[in-house]
Write a structure and sequence with these properties.
391 residues; alpha/beta; Spore Coat Polysaccharide Biosynthesis Protein SpsA, Chain A; 2 domains; 7-stranded mixed sheet; 3-stranded mixed sheet; 12 helices; 12 strands
Length: 391
């Protein structure tokens, strides 16, 4: 067979494969849109009725002097939950700033029990946050454990919404919505849109009883469930994954009792990263979890997403070189982009945010190389988190 004929066949095969991948990807997007709308919106039934279940809020911190007081004030302003029905445990991970003194100062006058404990690491463990949460759970009095981060902000009915959700659904694990606030400039707005895709996808996966992602800045679980699955046992050697690995362990033990709470009263707000280097280390830490998953479904999804975006980049490069038909590229991508916009717009509107068309188009160009880049980086090199380096 002539070399030219072989080349034409290879190009034709690539066009067919790319088209098939795009069709499947678009079908998945359509499914995400439909499932997102099926998730029931939850709101506190009676905001004047005090929730009765005892709960513990755990906040692992390291060098959060700029933020921790604001979060504690938010907790002091909680409504719909009786005084004495919740406690707060701040676990300090060897902070080098004024975090400890600020927590101690705030604890002198606050109306809820506020405890400060220092993190004691077990020999050989590199998972500081998991150890912080585990030690706090061991000392907690609450039946329901809620975790968030020291740089987050919460609304007035944050705790009440979680308590009422647990009471209504008899849940074992509940993930809440997280978004960025005070975004400044294109870079931070793009992070908000991309982050909304993760939150939305994670929400749908939980609703479909195929949980694959959540965010530790806003999640809760029963102390009974945490102890039943032996907490983070088996994953303490992994620096990240305090959220997703625990979710899967609890789901395996309590199928049908893992939920996403679609409630604007439960939204947690945090800050987008301001610089590329800080953003890189955060996403490198997140992406590093995927190669450690043992769940076949999660692995397949990760491989499919990476492969599809790799094919997209190859097809685009070949189209520029005149070796790939633009029709095979443009039409499928147009359908994909429309569906992505619809899905993201729905999630963003739930978060009470708007998605700018210019921001969306910019992200569409950036996202494929972004996925491929971090898909490769997840398997190599090291990253820095909280002034510590991990491999």
């Amino acid at each position: 067979m002539a070399p030219l004929t072989v080349l034409l066949l290879q190009i034709y095969l690539l066009e067919i494969v790319f088209f098939a991948f795009t069709v499947f990807y678009s079908v998945c997007l359509l499914w995400l849109i439909l499932q997102w709308h099926r998730i029931p919106v939850f709101s506190t039934e009676d905001q004047q009725k005090a929730a009765s279940s005892i709960l513990t809020v755990i906040i692992p911190v390291r060098n959060e002097a700029e933020n921790i007081t604001c979060l504690l004030r938010d907790l002091s302003a909680q409504q719909g939950i009786a005084n004495g029905c919740f406690e707060v445990i701040v676990v300090d991970d060897h902070s080098e700033d004024r975090t400890v003194s600020l927590v101690e100062k705030y604890g002198k006058d606050c109306h809820f029990p506020l405890y400060l404990i220092s993190l004691n690491m077990l020999a050989g463990s590199c998972s500081h946050k998991k150890m912080a949460i585990a030690q706090a759970v061991a000392q907690s009095k609450g039946k329901i454990i809620i975790t968030t981060d020291g740089d987050c902000r919460v609304g007035a009915y944050w705790l009440a919404s979680f308590v009422q959700f647990f009471e209504k659904h008899q849940a074992a694990f509940v993930s809440g919505p997280v978004t960025f606030h005070h975004e400044y400039g294109l870079f931070q707005h793009l992070q908000t849109i991309e982050f909304a895709s993760l939150i939305g996808t994670g929400a749908v996966s939980m609703y479909a009883q195929m949980p694959n992602m959540c965010n530790g800045a806003n999640l809760a679980f029963t102390k009974e469930a945490f102890l039943a699955v032996n907490g983070y046992e088996g994953t303490l050697h992994i620096p990240s994954g305090d959220d997703e690995f625990l979710m899967r362990k609890i789901f395996k033990q309590y199928p049908g009792h893992v939920y996403f709470m679609k409630s604007d009263e439960a939204i947690v707000y945090t800050d987008a990263k301001s610089g590329l280097l800080e953003f890189y280390h955060q996403r490198r830490r997140w992406s590093g979890k995927w190669k450690l998953h043992k769940n076949a479904g999660v692995i397949i999804v990760a491989i499919f997403v990476f492969t599809y975006h790799s094919l997209l980049l190859i097809a685009f490069a070949m189209a520029i070189l005149g070796q790939f038909a633009w029709m095979w590229l443009a039409i499928p991508l147009l359908i994909k982009c429309v569906l992505e916009y619809v899905f993201l717009n729905h999630v963003m509107r739930f978060m009470k945010k708007r998605i700018g068309l210019l921001h969306f188009i910019t992200l569409e160009f950036i996202y494929p190389p972004y996925v491929v880049f971090f898909g490769i980086c997840a398997n190599f090199g090291s990253y820095t988190w909280k002034n510590r380096t991990y491999t």
